[in-house]
Amino acid sequence: MLWPVETRSVCPVFVGRADELGVLHDALARAATGEPQALLLGGEAGVGKTRLVEEFAEVASGRGAVVALGGCVEIGADGLPFAPFSTALRALRRALPDELAAAAAGQEEELARLLPELGETGAGRHDEEGMARLFELTARLLERVAADRTVVVALEDLHWADASTRHLLAYLFRTLRTGRLVVLATYRADDIHRRHPLRPLLAELDRLRTVRRIELSRFNRAEVGRQIAGILAAEPAPAQVDEIFDRSDGNAFFVEELAVAAHEGCRTRLTDTLRDLLLVRVESLPESAQRVARIVAEGGSTVEYRLLAAVAGLAEDDLIEALRAAVGANLLLATPAGDGYRFRHSLVREAVADDLLPGERSRLNRRYAEALEADPTLVPADERAMRLASYWYHAHDPAKALPAVLDASVTARRRYAYSEQLRLLERAMELWDAAPDAVRATLRPVDYTEIYPPYGCDSAPTALRYLDLMAEAAVAGRLCGERERALKIIKRALHLLEDDGDPLRAAWFWCQRSRLVQAQSRGDGWKELGTAQELVRGLPPSEVHAEVLANVAAWSMLHSPGPDALAAAEQAVEYARMVGAHETELHARLTHGGLLIDAGATETGFAEMRAVKEQSVAENIFFVAGRAYVNLPNGLEAVGRSLDSVPILEEGIAYTRRFGLLDSEAWVWGNLSQSLYSLGRWDAAADAATNALRRGHSTKPQGGGAICLAQLALDRGDLPEAARQLATAHEHFGTHDPMPQHDLLLALVTIGVAAAEGRLLDARTELGRVLDTGFPPGTHRFGWPLLLAAATAEADARALPTVETGRAEVLERIRDTAKKLTTGVPVWLAHEQWVRAELQRADGTATPDTWSRLVTAFEALDRPYDLARVRHRLAEALLADGAEPDDRDRATELLRLSATVADHLGARPLADAVTLLAQRARLTPTRAPGPARPTADPVESLGLTSRERDVLRLVSAGRTNRQIAEELFISPKTASVHVSNILAKLGVSGRGEAAALAHRLGLFPPGAVPARTVG
């Protein structure tokens, strides 16, 4: 299926390009198998890019593909935000209305920023993820539409693309993974000078293996001859081919122009420049047609007929005759929709526009602007504000241009086109002094930037000020990634505020600077945030005050949690409620809940965080909801409730993917990896960590994924991979903004790798660095594993005399530090016992009772790997110093259980340690012990916890998750997690196989499961 494709060539024969067309056909075939294709088609102006796209579109249509074309629209020197994507999506909507509506279902408000026909855009929160969210939803939309049919999206004239279009295209090329989709973009290679904004994008896309780049060369002499023959419908004379080939140098468009000129008898009048050649056809038209051509040239890539009529001021019959002459001369073409006109080739339009006099150009822009102001329906509604701003700006009328540019900036912001918003605001700042005072006095803030304080009272704000523009521009620069420009704007704003006595605005700008400094890797942002806090100290409650305190609390929770952070969060919640700053209140409450958990008020903190999650999800406050799906399960994991965290994380993945919250999704994947690791689902944990690396929009969540993969590689004995992932995590976390949780995770793996490689002194050095820094409140979840790793390394090396020096001091420091860490929940109480046991092992004083109590502690937890490790240690203690027969039998069973878990997880170091211990003691842990000892529980031998035993018993009886939850007094989601863990440990694919295996092994005797009462 091919929707209207505009054909602009005068040659009916498609010449050459066999290799290039072959690449496109191959891409089409690959896409038909479900492998998305990304292609860039470059070449100089007039070389035949559009003609090749037309030919490919015809072939694709013939093979049943849906083809959607979109072109970058130029108005003066400005491009319309997302114009090619909007046009292409409209074409898809016309071709597949039901399919596109189904693909966009539930996301119409967001996607309406690209395709207004989907409905009204939501107000939304303008944050760093806003544009990324729109891009992600667009990618998913295209993948869904192309799920059952091949779709070709062709975007032309990328050299005119606005920044937002370039960013979206880059995102699609990087992230499209599924769907029968071909995305093809064309650009003029000769326009891409060293400072052209498209140049960095092309360099970036060249590094992607999934993007194929096609460069169109000029025709050779034989191809020029075939092209001329097609144009003239006759074989040309060799001399004519030689002359045209020499003059055109093989450029297909110039070949057409020269051939037509020769055919019309104009050859002898041709001037020396090809630019003048392009004007020959214009100058041969009647004066009225030439005038219309000049008007169209200045109006943009395409000019609507009604707008053209209003600007030309001709009688309708005269206008139609002029247009007929221009179309007949193949100078202008009607648009596919039949509602406007464009030049056959942009080279001709540029030549005509360049021939305009300066006063003539500004006069035409004024007439366009006046016509559009008089009748706004002359252009599509989604283009109106941007085009009016461009016309007035190029008309050089500051009084008219300033209000129009500001209106256009609001439109760009609401479409998440922050790059265009920044350009327009900088243009407004340029026009500010030139605009009359009377005009500036009428301007009012239209859409306040975040919580930037308006001048005057809220009900009647005073006139817009230059500082307001700077505030809006600073945020636009931050959101579009132009952080250096934003920092320069903020620096100027703070300079203006030095003598202004306006602490609220100054505090607001310092908060912005804090975020930019962090984003630019120039520091942790505290200096700037602390300055803002001092500026608002003692002031009455306000939105700015609440926002500053909320940011201080959030920063402190990550960098220096403690009483001050908790107090800031409490005050932020109070102030936000007093001034009605709802989103700030939710943001601060979520931080407050996390800090309460760190302070020991666990259930109160969880209740607060759950309430915020439910409220923010219900109200579609994406920023807060995304944080909640990260922080709430992170808190649950921090107190050892991994089973409870997994269902929330899985729900969070669905939520963040649905709304395109890329960084939040990456954090959720990283947290899921940690919880799955704890639960012994290591393959799933590795997949989750990989997704965190792949889905992260910024670097820190990617670092979280890398550190999870490093820990897994370490525990599986792949030290080179552990070191590689550790280096990746270091790179992603950076050094400019250190956070205890990241530093401690890095230190944990660093100590583990060093110890595994026999570099105990390096491990001690890293430990000393961490202990010198200390463990802030709330970091015990990272502190206990780190102390354990250090104590284990010392115990393993206790027989090495080369590291004896300093051992006593290290053990004492570990012991003293352990006394200060929190043990308020069972998992960390068990770790405290474990650290103490390893210290005793290092001293040579550990006994079987020490490890037996530890095994009992871990048997009550859902930590199969940790349980396997302490069982191995207990077996080791039992076999020491000539074990009794009963101790040998017990050790044999413990080693068998540890080996089962180690084999299941792929934990090679543990498996090797178990095997070595068994060989030394001449035991066979793979076989059940002799009759002197009762047969071990077969359920336990499978590595199942006591809770999983209960769940498997009910699964074997045919219970559903809901019925299991009711009988065991747990939630259905928790029951589902238990079932998933059981299936993984048993190595089966479903509940039926699990039940069959349980019956086959006789795990539960008849009558073990009471009949369920019905009624």
Secondary-structure map:
Layout: H1 18-32, E1 37-43, H2 49-62, E2 66-71, E3 74-75, E4 78-79, H3 83-95, H4 97-104, H5 108-111, H6 130-145, E5 151-156, H7 163-175, E6 181-188, H8 198-206, E7 211-215, H9 221-232, H10 238-248, H11 252-263, H12 274-283, H13 287-299, E8 303-304, H14 305-312, H15 316-328, E9 332-334, E10 340-343, H16 346-354, H17 358-374, H18 381-394, H19 398-414, H20 418-432, H21 437-442, E11 456-457, E12 460-461, H22 466-480, H23 483-497, H24 503-519, H25 526-536, H26 543-559, H27 563-579, H28 582-598, H29 602-618, H30 622-638, H31 642-658, H32 662-678, H33 682-695, H34 699-715, H35 719-733, H36 740-756, H37 760-773, H38 780-796, H39 807-818, H40 826-843, H41 848-859, H42 864-879, H43 885-905, H44 908-920, H45 938-941, H46 946-956, H47 961-968, H48 972-986, H49 991-1001
Parallel strand pairs: 1-6, 1-7, 2-5, 5-6
Antiparallel strand pairs: 3-4, 8-10, 9-10, 11-12
3D structure, described in words:
The protein is 65% helix and 5% strand. The chain has 1015 residues and is mainly alpha-helical. Residues 1-9, 267-272, 455-460, 927-936 and 1010-1015 have low confidence and may be disordered. The chain contains 49 helices and 12 strands. The strands form 4 sheets. It has a 5-stranded parallel beta sheet with strand order 2-5-6-1-7, sandwiched between helices. A 3-stranded antiparallel beta sheet has the order 8-10-9. Helix 28 (582-598) runs antiparallel to helix 29.
